[in-house]
Amino acid sequence: MACNTTPIDSYVALNESTPCTGSSYTPLPGLLRRLFVTIMVFMIAVGFFGNAIVCLIVYQKPAMRSAINLLLATLAFSDIMLSLCCMPFTAVTIITVKWNFGAHFCRISAMLYWLFVLEGVSILLIISVDRFLIIVQRQDKLNPHRAKIIIAISWGLSFCISFPSVVGWTFVDVPARAPQCVLGYTEMPSDRAYAMMLIAAVFFIPFSVMLYSYLCILNTVRRNALRIHNHAESLGLSQVSKLGPMGLQKPHQLNVDMSFKTRAFTTILILFIGFSLCWLPHTVFSLLSVFSRQFYCSPSFYITSTYILWLSYLKSVFNPVIYCWRIKKFREACLDFIPKTFKIFPLAPGRTKRRIQPSTIYICSETQSVV
C-alpha cells in the first residue's frame, strides 16, 4: 500500500523495498483538482446525511427493525464511517498534492478504508444469500436476532482481514504516487499473498457468490412466471367462478409474508450492479499495482489512482439514493425527517385500490412458488 507525501519524488520508506526510486509522476491540473474536491465534499455530505437517515429510521421505528433492515442499516453505517474517516483525507491530499498526515496514519487510513469496505461488501453478500435461500430454497431462516449475530461476526472478520496493514505485516511505503494509501508494487511473496487475499475478500468471492445467487433467483422467477402463465391458460372460467371471492384471495393471504420478503430483490440487485461497476475497476487497478512495476511506476499512476478511488467512494453515496428511490417505507420515513416548512408540495392521497400485478401471484398448484 502506498500514499504520497510530497509533490516530488521523495518518499519515506517503511520497509526496505523502494520500487520507484527516481521515477516521476503527473498530478491532476489545478482546475481539475478543485473540481474533484468540490465533488468529493458533496459526496461526503450526501454519504453522511443520507446514510445517517437510514440508520435513524431503523433505530427510531421499531416496525422497521426487520432482519434485512438491520443489515441495510449496518451497510449505511459502514458507508458513514468511510465518508468520515477516509474521504476527507483523500480530498485534502488531492487539493494539496501532498500527504500531510504522517507515515503511521498512512497505515491507519489503509486499515480503516479496507475495514469499512469489507464490512459493506459482507453485508451485501449476506443479503444476497438470504434472498437466495428465500426465493430459490424457500427457506426463511434469518430473523433480527440471527441478523445481529451475523453482523457482529462480519465486523470481526473484516477487522481481522484489514488489521495486518496497520501493524506492518504488509508492504507499505509513502511515496508521492496516490492521494491515499493503496496497494503498491512488491516482489515479496508474503505481501503478494496478502494482497491477493484482500482483493479476493473484497471483490472476487462476494462477486462470484452474489452473481450465482442472482442467476439462480432470476432462473426461479422465469420458471415461476412460465408456470403462472400456463396455469392461467388452463384455468377455465367455470373454475374461476367456483372459487369465489374468498378463493381468489387465498393465494395472496397464504403468501403475504413471503411476498413482503421478496420485494427487496430488485433493490438488492441494483445495489449489486452498483457494487460491480464501482469495484471492478478498483480490483483491476489493485492487481496491476501489486504485480506490475511498470504500471505502478508510470507517470500516469497518480491520475489513474485518483479516478479509481473516487469511483470506489461513489458507492457509499449511491446506496442511500437507491433506498429512497426503491423502498417506499424508507422514502416515507425520510419525508418525516424533513421539517414541515421545507415541504413545498403536499402529499398526494394514496390509491384506494392496489393494482394487481402478475408477479404477486405465487401459487400455481398445491406447492408454494415464490418469486
From TrEMBL:
<keyword id="KW-0812">Transmembrane</keyword>
<feature type="transmembrane region" description="Helical">
    <location>
        <begin position="35"/>
        <end position="59"/>
    </location>
</feature>
<keyword id="KW-0325">Glycoprotein</keyword>
<feature type="transmembrane region" description="Helical">
    <location>
        <begin position="192"/>
        <end position="217"/>
    </location>
</feature>
<dbReference type="Pfam" id="PF00001">
    <property type="entry name" value="7tm_1"/>
</dbReference>
<protein>
    <submittedName>
        <fullName>G protein-coupled receptor 45</fullName>
    </submittedName>
</protein>
<feature type="transmembrane region" description="Helical">
    <location>
        <begin position="149"/>
        <end position="172"/>
    </location>
</feature>
<dbReference type="InterPro" id="IPR000276">
    <property type="entry name" value="GPCR_Rhodpsn"/>
</dbReference>
<dbReference type="GO" id="GO:0004930">
    <property type="term" value="F:G protein-coupled receptor activity"/>
</dbReference>
<feature type="domain" description="G-protein coupled receptors family 1 profile">
    <location>
        <begin position="50"/>
        <end position="323"/>
    </location>
</feature>
<keyword id="KW-1133">Transmembrane helix</keyword>
<dbReference type="InterPro" id="IPR051880">
    <property type="entry name" value="GPC_Orphan_Receptors"/>
</dbReference>
<keyword id="KW-1003">Cell membrane</keyword>
<feature type="transmembrane region" description="Helical">
    <location>
        <begin position="111"/>
        <end position="129"/>
    </location>
</feature>
<keyword id="KW-0675">Receptor</keyword>
<dbReference type="InterPro" id="IPR017452">
    <property type="entry name" value="GPCR_Rhodpsn_7TM"/>
</dbReference>
<dbReference type="GO" id="GO:0005886">
    <property type="term" value="C:plasma membrane"/>
</dbReference>
<keyword id="KW-0472">Membrane</keyword>
<feature type="transmembrane region" description="Helical">
    <location>
        <begin position="264"/>
        <end position="287"/>
    </location>
</feature>
<keyword id="KW-0297">G-protein coupled receptor</keyword>
<feature type="transmembrane region" description="Helical">
    <location>
        <begin position="307"/>
        <end position="325"/>
    </location>
</feature>
<feature type="transmembrane region" description="Helical">
    <location>
        <begin position="71"/>
        <end position="99"/>
    </location>
</feature>
<keyword id="KW-0807">Transducer</keyword>
